[in-house]
Specification:
Blueprint lengths: L8 E4 L5 E4 L15 H7 L13 E4 L8 E4 L10
Antiparallel strand pairs: 1-2, 1-3, 3-4
């Protein structure tokens, strides 16, 4: 959020949690931050189109000018809780 990177991946995991992710060099790196949904929408209004993203799905795009592509998430793909 702080560096102004675009949101290019949104995950609505099987537990019902949402993740808004920018481009990352190391997807395993722990750099998560808690943010209110309103702050996410304020930063990037295009996220509104994902309000209906069902649980167990993710949306991906290469850049903010691209359309979101929705994909189903297999349970095995989700990170295990520590």
């Amino acid at each position: 959020m702080e560096d102004g990177a675009p949101i290019v991946r949104v995950v609505h995991d099987h537990d019902g949690d949402w993740q808004f992710i920018g481009p990352v060099d190391d997807p395993g790196e722990d750099g998560g931050k808690v943010s209110c949904f309103h702050c996410i929408i304020e930063r990037d209004p295009s996220i509104k189109v994902l309000a209906g993203l069902p649980v167990g799905m993710r949306a991906l795009r290469d850049s903010v000018s691209d359309k979101w592509e929705w994909q189903e998430i297999e349970k095995e793909e989700e990170p295990a809780e520590s």
